# Entry
Amino acid sequence: MSADAAVNMDRIEKRIVLRAPRARVWRALSNAAEFGSWFGVDFSGASFAPGATVRGRITYPGCEHLTMEIVIDRMEPERLFSYRWHPNAVDPKVDYSKEPTTLVVFELQDAAEGTLLTVVESGFDRIPIDRRAEAFRSNDQGWAEQVRNIDRYVARA
Amino acid sequence: MSLAPSRRADRADVGASALLFAALGDPKRLQVVVRLCRDGPLSIARLTEGSEVTRQAIAKHLHVLARAGVVRGYRRGRERLWELEARRLEMAREYLGFVSKRWDDTLERLKSAVER
# Structure
């Protein structure tokens, strides 16, 4: 674990260089249907605008019974796109609307090979601990655990 | 790191340690810690099961442990659960690892979408 992660439990920051112009990346972020196609949610027919609430069915395998909802925060063309959401709304029976959200910010900058995209998700400190625990029970974490179990099993054999 | 820590900080550390040692110095309380360490977050009812100690006594032990920062209580629905602070930190760290991995996968999908 990095020292930074030890100190800061509130945010995740990711940087990635995309070999595509900013205009192309911006479209993939700001067009609801396009966003949905790589994010794994069906946002067809919806459109993003600051303040708008956008809902769609998750298309990610194993999570199709879930609805994802985001509230668009800021949109500054080819520079910044942000939204708020409940990062682990994994139980369709639970009303998450009163719970704290995290803020996801995408920032675009020019890079030699194309576009440098920075993603920061912050506000995890306010997410109730049992919600965080639930994230582990969701599918992929379950699989990761299974893989670790098999690993341990094989290592012992 | 300071070579001459202030008196006040020193005293605060000693105070916190004294509280911690006092909290762990009781065998019954230590049992509660061992249970939470082994079985994860538990309610007072669950902690009382199979123990000859009363519910009230367990509650009292938990409050002493909470004051020392060893355990922490939180609500889940109608229940109040107790867990070790260390486990809590561990979980917060694991959780961020999980979120981080999810973003890696998501951004890989974005990369293939825009570089196509």
Notes: The longest strand of chain B covers residues 71-76. The beta strands of chain B are 42-43, 71-76, 79-84.
